[in-house]
Structures are given as structure tokens and as C-alpha cells.
Specification:
The complex is a heterodimer of chains A (about 240) and B (about 475). Chain A is α/β, with parallel strands linked by helices. Chain A has 2 domains: about 120 residues, Rossmann fold (3-Layer(aba) Sandwich), CATH 3.40.50; about 120 residues, Rossmann fold (3-Layer(aba) Sandwich). In chain A, the strands form 2 sheets. In chain A, strands 2-1-3-4 form a 4-stranded parallel sheet, with helices on both faces. In chain A, helix 7 packs across helix 9. The two termini of chain A are about 25 Å apart. The chains are: A alpha/beta (about 240), B alpha/beta (about 475).
Chain lengths: ~240, ~475
């Protein structure tokens, strides 16, 4: 099976270590991975702000880059939801592109979802520590994937997962919302950060670098030392 | 940017109001917790939502038929019905009625539509005394404010603030014990009930098959409002119908469980026509004002769904934005997610264009909605309309055109990333974090560190090592 890595713009530009971990974990599991360099971004920043025409231009680039793979795997619940749920709708008025969007939508998976669907839940990882997992809203509500990352984490030996109060609440990221409504976004991040700190854990884990960049940015501004990791980073670390 | 908008000003003020935020948070937690427990208690809640959604869809799709049936039954039962195209038409009808019947005092039970049409001010301007009799509404009337929540209008006030308001009204210091405060309100409102010439209520549901108006309340005030005064006026949004009593059963269950987590409210009152000969009480006249005010223009559009709303407030109770700014910051009658969708639709994107952006698109509203209105997707549509109608800021338009131009081409995109990496070097701390950003990034860096683009992008790593490492540890592929 030829797996195309859709790194996402955030990982490619800001958090390459997440992409590197994903390549390593997937290879260790025996997948033949490739990273087509034609990709950039899924187009959400434009699409979610109302710029559908601009979002469409960017989406077409991603479709072209990724459509030839058997499966496309991405370390982002939000970008996977964009491709799966929004791309076909975005191409409503262009039948040929809609077909191509649906083709990609059917084979694009968020990382944990991809593994768990194939029965790969125990990767043999071991890492001592306590952690909370933050469910990103697009992954939870639009992609409807909640259990997969938890199942992967439950099999990490030595790791204790603690419950976060109000786990269903948004962290305040919301893409351009974080800058258009910076004050509200910060208030939301602060409440989430308070919840995280109340658990006293070592790691904050998640499946979307947007949320983790927001929470991590607030944590470090508040001088807190909770380590922020993508699920795949934790697994990779636990496998070495 | 040309300074802060009125909306941003209100948001800023709300965020600094710790009393407001604590009150909203506590009530929100109580209400949303109640909803989750009540849904679990029901059993197959999703199946009930599906039925509720189907009933609302069917009703709104055949609204003309059911409005006609409802009007016919109302008139058969001896009531009057008036279709108001606009808020102005609705106000005028009620004012003329009040003048013609020599009404000097009005009692009201809670009604968001009456807020929407600005009824209280219009009546008061004609010298008619208006008293809100729902406890929350009574509180905010004394404070000279508007409701900040669909079902909990005084959610932003705490007990101490209420005691101060009531003491001022009473002319003496009242204890802030809940019993003392409610006892005061009860005594005070009784006088008003007994004196009133006209009672004005909203309408939770109109049952088309019998022409009945159904009121859902917890305080009994709706019952007094609709039965004591000689004239009863119902103000209802035109979409507030259900075809049959059987359908009411489903929607009533969804409404009370979603709103407050109650299995049923203390009072559910059904009114069919005015007092009949032989009736012990009830008004001599019943007038039902059906308000359009922009609703029918949504029929047949991609926004038709919003007419399915049953005004339970569940979306407000789960909304993280509402949680931190409360209802008044929205600057509209309806607040929270439903308000952010409905207000621009009824009153125009020109004036309320910021509301669709007052959401992180987290989708908690859509998940909570008992009739499955895709609220966060409608917000996306409103943003889209705003951009396509050229109403978004010029700078933003240019920025996204630039974004698309870059993101279409990986070479341009990564040249920009490298440029960003270079430009931000002098701004970063030793750990590579930006504490202070430029331009559009500054609302982020005001409160949060921002990462610098990595010195080696993922694709750089891929080119240098990643691709070469190919294959798998044991040489096989899955």
C-alpha cells in the first residue's frame, strides 16, 4: 500500500518534527510512505474565513498532489475533516473536480484513525509519565474520531492518561478566529490551560497542531512547563 | 485596521467583567449539565432528535398550509389572528388595540419576539405601563437592560445585584436571600396582575390542528398573564407551529430537556380561544399576532434550517464564545450561536457582519441542537456570503488573494516561509519563540507565544534524509 503523507502547512513549516515522527512510525509499521512535494495547505484558512474561491484554488493543488495514492495520511484531524467533509462541497459547481475531491475524500485519514482502522492499536511503545489528551473540535465533531487516539495511547506502557475537565470544550484556536477575536480566543485558551494545569500532568497531547500551537503558546507565555506533543511524537518517542 | 468596532468594544468590556463571566459560566454549567443528564435519562436521544428534526422540517416546508390551518382554527375558536409582515406592523396592531380598548396597564410573560419587535418601548411611548412578570425579565426590566439569554434573561446578574435592584425598587434594603427576593417579586407582581387590562405572552408552539397556543414556563406567570386580564395578546414568530398534538409531544420533550434539563416544566399551558360562556375565567378577547419580520424571506434558501429553531437556548449553553462574553456583547436580541446566524439574516450582514465570525467553528452548538440545525455550517455560509458580497475588509481580501497565490505553488509558499523564518529571527527569544508579532499576528502574540518557521522545514528533511531512509525496518512493505 502506497501511503501519501499530507504533512499540513503547520507541520511542514513550523513543526517538522511531527511529520518526521509520523514517517518513522508508519515505516516501522511497514507502510511504504511518500511525501509528494506539490502539496502546501488544505485551504482552510481561506475557506473558514469565507473565501471559498481562494480555498478552492488551494484545495485543487492538494487534490492534484495527493490523488494518486492508495491512502493519504495526515497528522491533523482538522485538515482531514476539511478534505473529507468540505472538499466535495467546495467543488459543487465543477463536476470533474467534485469527482476528484470525492475520490481523495474517500482515502484521506487522520493518523490515529488510519492505524486503528487497520487494527494497529498496540505499537509496543513505552514511555513513563502522565498526560491529558485534548480532543480537537474538528476531529471530534466533523470527522467524528474520538476513540482512535485514546486507544493508541492506552497501549503505551508506563503512560497514565488523566481526564480533562470539560473535555468537549474548544481550546479557542479556530484558525483566523484566534486573531480576529484574539481576546475571546485567549479567554478560551486560558480556561483550557487552567483545566490542564489542574491535572498536574507532564504532557499535553493532541492530534492537531493548530490547537497545540494555541495551547502551547499560552502555556509558555504563562511560564508553564507542561510538554506539548502530538500523539505521533509521543508514540515515536516511546518506540525508541 | 481603523480602531475597534462597537462589537469589539462590547467584547472587550465583557471580557473584563469578572462578575458577568462567573455568573454566565455557573449558569451555563448548570444548564448544559442538565441537558446532558436529561438526554441520557431519555434513552435514545438521537432517535428523538431525528424525529424532532423531521417534524420541524416538514412543518417549515409546508408552513403556508399549517399557518392557514392554524388561523382557521383560531378564528373558529373565537380568537382573532393578525399576520404582521414587519415589526412595525405588529407593533401598530397591538398599539391600536390597546388604545381602542382603553388599556393603561399591560403584564407580559417572557417573549423573545416581543423583544425582536421592540414592543415594550412602543407601548410605553403611548403611556401604557408595561410590567414583565417572568422573574428574570422583571429583574432586567428594573435594571433597564435587555435579555442576555433566550431562556435565562438575567443570566448575567448574580443574587447580590438582584437584591440591590429590588431594594432600590422597594425603597428599603431587602435581604439577598432567594426566598426574600422572590417573595418581594411575587407581592409586587400580584398587584400588577390584578390591575392589568392586557396580558401579552409569547408562544412556544402553536398547534395547527386545533388553533391552540402552548406556553412553557416554570413560574406560573404565563398562566396569570393569559387568564387574568380581559385581553390576551399572543406574539409569535410565524414558524412556531407544529401540525398536531402528537408532534407537540416530541418537541416539548426536546425543548424542556434541552433548555433546562427538566423532564417537563412546572407549567405547560394550552390555550384555545378566549373565555367561552360557562368558563370560570379567561380573557374576553384573544388576539394572535403572527410575526414574519424577515422569516419568510429565508424559506427556500440555504438558510431555511434556521427556522427549525425551537428557542431552547441549548446552543448558548454549550457555546464557549457565549461563555466568555455573555449575551449583550452580541448587540442583538438573539445571542449565542443561533443569534450569530439569525441576526444577520433578519437584520443584514452590513450591520451584523462580525457575528458570524464570533465563533471558533467548534460545532458544539450543532451537536447540542435538539432539532439538528447545522449552526456552525450556517456560520460558514454567512461568512462566504459576506465575502462574495464584497463586505469583508479590503485588507483581508488582499491577504487571502495573496495566500491563495502562494499556497497554489509550493515554491512560492516555501519561499515565503523561508522569508518569514529570516524576518522573525531578530524578534525571537532564545527558544525561538515570538513574544511580539507584527500586523495581523499581534492579536495572537499579545497573549500567546508564536513559533518561528523551522530552520529546516519538513520537506527539507524529506529531501535530505527522509526519502532516502525509504523502505521499512525489515525491508518488507505492508
Amino acid at each position: 500500500m502506497r501511503v501519501g503523507i499530507f504533512a499540513t502547512c503547520l507541520v511542514d513549516v513550523f513543526f517538522p518534527e511531527v511529520g518526521i515522527s509520523m514517517v518513522r512510525v508508519l515505516r516501522r509499521l511497514g507502510f511504504d510512505v511518500d511525501f509528494p512535494e506539490g502539496q502546501t495547505c488544505c485551504g482552510q484558512p481561506a475557506f473558514n474565513t469565507g473565501y471559498w474561491a481562494e480555498g478552492r484554488r488551494v484545495a485543487k493543488g492538494l487534490i492534484r498532489a495527493m490523488e494518486s495514492y492508495d491512502a493519504v495520511v495526515t497528522p491533523s484531524g482538522s485538515c482531514a475533516a476539511m478534505v473529507r467533509r468540505m472538499y466535495p462541497r467546495l467543488m459543487d459547481e465543477e463536476p470533474e473536480w467534485k469527482r476528484r475531491a470525492e475520490h481523495l475524500a474517500a482515502r484521506c485519514f487522520e493518523f490515529s484513525e488510519f492505524l486503528v482502522q487497520r487494527g494497529l492499536v498496540d505499537l509496543g511503545a513505552r514511555l513513563e509519565g502522565t498526560a491529558v489528551y485534548h480532543h480537537s473540535c474538528h476531529m471530534r465533531r466533523d470527522l467524528q474520531v474520538t476513540e482512535a487516539p485514546l486507544r493508541l495511547l492506552a497501549h503505551v506502557r508506563g503512560l497514565t492518561l488523566k481526564a480533562l475537565p470539560h473535555p468537549e470544550d474548544c481550546c479557542g484556536f479556530g484558525g483566523t478566529f484566534a486573531v480576529k477575536m484574539g481576546g475571546i480566543s485567549t479567554a478560551m485558551a486560558d480556561e483550557k490551560v487552567d483545566h490542564i494545569l489542574s491535572t498536574g500532568v507532564d504532557f499535553l497531547l493532541g492530534s492537531d497542531m493548530g490547537c497545540l500551537m494555541n495551547l502551547g503558546g499560552r502555556l509558555s507565555r504563562r511560564g508553564e512547563s507542561v510538554e506539548v506533543l502530538h500523539v505521533v511524537q509521543l508514540l515515536d518517542r516511546g518506540l525508541n | 485596521m481603523n480602531g475597534k468596532s462597537a462589537f469589539q468594544e462590547r467584547v472587550g468590556k465583557a471580557l473584563e467583567d469578572d462578575f458577568l463571566r462567573r455568573s454566565v459560566r455557573e449558569t451555563q454549567d448548570r444548564l448544559r449539565g442538565g441537558r446532558v443528564a436529561a438526554a441520557a435519562d431519555w434513552g435514545d436521544w438521537e432517535a428523538l432528535r431525528t424525529r424532532g428534526e423531521a417534524i420541524r422540517r416538514h412543518t417549515v416546508e409546508h408552513l403556508d398550509v399549517y399557518l392557514d390551518r392554524f388561523a382557521t382554527r383560531v378564528e373558529e375558536a373565537g380568537g382573532h389572528i393578525f399576520f404582521a409582515d414587519t415589526a412595525e406592523d405588529a407593533r401598530r396592531y397591538i398599539l391600536q388595540l390597546a388604545v381602542a380598548k382603553g388599556v393603561s396597564s399591560v403584564v407580559k410573560s417572557k417573549s423573545m419576539v416581543s423583544e425582536e419587535i421592540g414592543l415594550n418601548h412602543a407601548l410605553e411611548a403611548e403611556g401604557v405601563e408595561v410590567t414583565e412578570t417572568d422573574l428574570g425579565e422583571f429583574i432586567i426590566q428594573l435594571a433597564g437592560e435587555t435579555p442576555s439569554h433566550i431562556i435565562a434573561p438575567a443570566i448575567h446578574k448574580n443574587r447580590k445585584q438582584v437584591a440591590e435592584l429590588f431594594s432600590r425598587e422597594a425603597g428599603r434594603t431587602l435581604s439577598d436571600a432567594t426566598e426574600a427576593l422572590t417573595a418581594y417579586a411575587r407581592r409586587r407582581l400580584r398587584e400588577k396582575f390584578l390591575r392589568a387590562d392586557m396580558g401579552i405572552t409569547g408562544c412556544n408552539f402553536g398547534v395547527a390542528e386545533s388553533g391552540s397556543v402552548v406556553l412553557v414556563s416554570n413560574e406560573g406567570n404565563a398562566r396569570l398573564t393569559s387568564s387574568l386580564p380581559r385581553i390576551h395578546v399572543v406574539v409569535m414568530g410565524m414558524e412556531r407551529l407544529v401540525p398536531r398534538w402528537k408532534d407537540l409531544d416530541v418537541l416539548l420533550t426536546l425543548l424542556t430537556r434541552s433548555a433546562t434539563g427538566q423532564k417537563i416544566t412546572s407549567y405547560v399551558t394550552a390555550i384555545t380561544g378566549p373565555r367561552r360562556s360557562g368558563d370560570a375565567d379567561g380573557p374576553e378577547e384573544l388576539h394572535i399576532v403572527v410575526v414574519d419580520n424577515g422569516r419568510s424571506a429565508l424559506l427556500g434558501t440555504k438558510y431555511q434550517h434556521v427556522l427549525h429553531c425551537i428557542r431552547c437556548g441549548a446552543c448558548l449553553n454549550v457555546c464557549p464564545v457565549y461563555r466568555h462574553i455573555g449575551g449583550h456583547a452580541y448587540g442583538s436580541v438573539y445571542s449565542g450561536p443561533i443569534g450569530a446566524v439569525l441576526t444577520p439574516l433578519l437584520n443584514g450582514l452590513e450591520k451584523y457582519g462580525e457575528l458570524p465570525y464570533a465563533s471558533s467553528l467548534c460545532g458544539a452548538c450543532t451537536e447540542a441542537c435538539p432539532v439538528r440545525i447545522p449552526l456552525h455550517e450556517l456560520l460558514l455560509e454567512l461568512r462566504r456570503d459576506q465575502v462574495e458580497e464584497g463586505l469583508s475588509p479590503r485588507v483581508e481580501q488582499m491577504a487571502f488573494r495573496g495566500f491563495a497565490w502562494m499556497a497554489e505553488d509550493p515554491k512560492r509558499f516555501f519561499a515565503a516561509a523561508k522569508l518569514g523564518q529570516w524576518l522573525t529571527r531578530p524578534l525571537a527569544d532564545e527558544a525561538g519563540r515570538l513574544k511580539k508579532g507584527m500586523g495581523p499576528l499581534s492579536p495572537w502574540t499579545e497573549s500567546r507565544d508564536f513559533p518561528r518557521p523551522a530552520s529546516q522545514a519538513f520537506r527539507d528533511w524529506w529531501r535530505r534524509e527522509g526519502r532516502r531512509e525509504g523502505g521499512t525496518d525489515d525491508g518488507s512493505t505492508r
